Automatic annotation (TrEMBL):
Organism listed in the record: Robiginitalea myxolifaciens
PANTHER family: AUXIN EFFLUX CARRIER FAMILY PROTEIN (PTHR36838), TRANSPORTER AUXIN EFFLUX CARRIER EC FAMILY (PTHR36838:SF3)
Keyword Transmembrane helix found: yes
Protein name: Permease
Domain of life: Bacteria
Keywords, alphabetical: Membrane, Transmembrane, Transmembrane helix, Transport
Segments forming a coiled coil: none
Keyword Transmembrane: yes
Annotated transmembrane regions: 6-22, 34-52, 58-76, 97-118, 124-145, 176-194, 200-222, 304-324, 330-349
């Protein structure tokens, strides 16, 4: 079996095992325990190790900047298109989608395929680009989630603007994920790497990091509750998201036509990465604050977030696999733009069909026909 395809099957099987474990869960607290380990141990360790492997070079700053540009592009597109894509959704669902859809998780859905189809140098470039994505997912989306939380509950928590900003900064410092990022950056600036840490500490962090992929996939499988109607809605959203990513990649390929085939493929597959687990971590933090303060009306819909995460991973993995198997076809800028437009239209199809029905079968039209 192709190594990349085998990797995809492995990830999907772990989600399936997690789904089968749902019947073994006797209480919600058991699922919360798995989530606690992920957010406070495995994820911070993984991020700490990933950052320490980065070599800081000024000439390579274009890669994380480009990745961050894509994240911001998707954030603006999500805020603009969501009222059209899902006109009947609630405010908490809209905020949830606005956080999830612009995020990327290349480590799970993209890096294995880059390693299998390209080479180590391409993987290193993708990892460097992921720095911009990490900054967006861990810092900017966190600040956005907390801003929405404080804006919605300004009357309930009775804080002034200064008080809210102070609370925001305190929450930022207390998060294990953010503490791991800060510590890793301090070590990088000081010229220190993982090899400079005591062997016992480095080994412990590495062992915690190894738990990350399996735990996240099991958690997604155990927590997912996708009905047929939800599956249809999520498939349309993911189709739109993938189409918007192809449009971004197509414009990039047209602007820089002299790129190598490997770099062109990298530009195509990186934005196709599945939705990240980090926005869910921010939503969980907000939900915990609301529970502790007995605030009614959650800011985010965490059940919807889990369902999207569960569907996004196989969707993105299969699409990335398709791109790599037909790389010369996809790597043409105009082809990417055309396919992206088609997938965006698929995501908008219910709204387009609804508009056609109103125009053709409106009462006035029927009356005129009669």
């Amino acid at each position: 079996m192709n190594p990349a395809l085998q990797r995809t099957v492995e990830l999907v099987l772990i989600i399936l095992i997690g789904y089968l474990l749902q019947r073994k869960l006797n209480a919600k607290q058991q699922l919360e325990g798995v989530k606690l380990i992920i957010l406070n141990v495995a994820l911070p360790a993984t991020i700490f190790l990933a950052l320490l492997k980065i070599e800081l070079k000024a000439s390579l700053l274009i890669l994380p900047v480009a990745a961050l540009g894509f994240n911001l592009y998707m954030l603006l597109a999500s805020r603009f298109f969501l009222p059209v894509l899902q006109p009947g959704i609630s405010g908490k669902q809209r905020r949830t989608l606005s956080l999830l859809l612009p995020s990327l998780a290349p480590g799970l859905s993209c890096f294995p395929f880059i390693l299998a189809y390209l080479d180590d140098s391409s993987l290193a470039l993708a990892a460097l680009a992921d720095v911009g994505n990490k900054f967006f997912g861990l810092i900017l989306l966190y600040l956005l989630a907390m801003q929405w939380y404080h804006r919605r509950n300004s009357e309930t928590n009775g804080k002034s603007t200064t008080g809210k900003l102070k609370g925001l900064l305190l929450s930022l410092i207390r998060e294990p994920i953010n503490a791991a990022i800060a510590l890793a950056l301090i070590l990088l600036i000081a010229g220190l790497g993982l090899e400079h840490l005591p062997a016992a500490i480095a080994s412990t962090i590495n062992r915690f990091s190894l738990m990350m992929v399996g735990l996240v996939l099991l958690f997604i499988g155990m927590a997912v509750r996708v009905g047929k109607s939800d599956l249809r809605q999520i498939a349309l959203l993911l189709s739109w998201r993938s189409g918007m990513a192809l449009l971004f990649s197509g414009i990039f390929l047209l602007l820089f036509p002299a790129l190598s085939p490997a770099m062109a493929l990298l530009i195509l597959v990186f934005p196709q990465s599945s939705c990240s687990f980090w926005p869910y971590a921010h939503m969980h933090l907000v939900g915990k604050l609301e529970t502790d303060r007995n605030i009614k009306g959650p800011t985010f819909d965490t059940d919807l977030a889990i369902n999207i995460l569960a569907c996004s991973l196989p969707f993105s993995s299969l699409f990335i696999l398709l791109i790599f198997n037909f790389g010369s076809f996809f790597s043409t800028g105009w082809i990417s733009l055309s396919l992206g437009t088609g997938m965006v239209l698929i995501g908008l199809m219910p709204r387009i069909w609804s508009w056609i029905r109103r125009q053709v079968f409106a009462p006035e039209a029927i009356k005129d026909i009669g």
